[in-house]
Amino acid sequence: MTNIRKELVLAYIRNYHPSTIRELEARLNQEGIRSSEEDLFEILRDLQRSGLISLGRIRYESLTSFLTQPGEAWWVYAIISVSIVEVLLVVFQTQTGALLGLRILFGLGLLGFLPGYSTLRCLFPSDQLSQLEGTLLSIFLSVVVSIALGVILGVGYLLTGISSVTLLSSYTVALTLLAAHRRRSFQRAP
Predict the structure, then answer these.
(1) Any long-range contacts for 38-42 (C-beta under 8 Å, 24+ apart)?
(2) Is 188 helix (H, G, I), strand (E, B) or coil?
(3) Per-residue CA distances from 171 to 98, 154, 175, 189 (Å)
(4) Each residue's pLDDT tens digit, 29-74
(5) I need a surface site. Which of 62, 115, 125, 167 has the fewest CB within 10 A?
């Protein structure tokens, strides 16, 4: 049975300054205050929404739970979507109007930015770099990765538009998922 109130949780946070939710829960249990995890999380979310407390990033227990949070994982979906759409546009050889423009735009993104961005997110899972540094490094790494994959395909006489975009998209999607996993595992608990 739950006997917890928002005011009580706020008082305990202000008095004892717990560094984790588990620590807060243990302190409340010591005092004989019982609550379900869901109730405590809901109270903490309400306190944060109202601006009374500030929580650090939530540590997600699995990659799936991280990916279900659009505010955290939007970049994963954007990169995967652009990669898949570009592969489809190249495979079906779209050469008309708006689709050609989309193919060129997504192709430039896939060739000159996204592989490096995914690699950078994988190497630096926390936000250690400034936005300018991240952008410049993403462009540089994308060029390096694109050239390296092109050389690999060229050595095996496999260098075609379809094989190139497929390999580059596969690399980008794989590194994006690895980067999402590393970002999830490096987040600190509230």
Answers:
(1) 39/2, 39/4, 40/4, 40/9
(2) coil
(3) 27, 17, 6, 30
(4) 888 887 777 888 888 888 888 877 776 656 677 888 888 888 888 9
(5) 62
What distance in Å separates the CA atoms of residue 119 and residue 174, rounded to the nearest whole number? 10
Handedness of CA 104, 105, 110, 111 (dihedral sign): positive
pLDDT tens column, 80-117: 999 999 999 999 998 888 999 999 999 999 999 999 99
Alpha helices in the chain, H assignment, sequence order: 6-16, 21-30, 37-49, 63-67, 70-91, 97-112, 114-123, 131-155, 161-186
CA terminus-to-terminus distance, the chain: 25
Cβ partners under 8 Å of residue 2, min gap 6: 34, 35, 36, 39
List, in order, residues 6 or more apart from 171 with CB less than 8 Å away.
Answer: 115, 118, 145, 149
Query: CB within 8 A of 70, min separation 6: which ones?
Result: 77
Cβ pair 175, 115 in contact under 8 A = yes
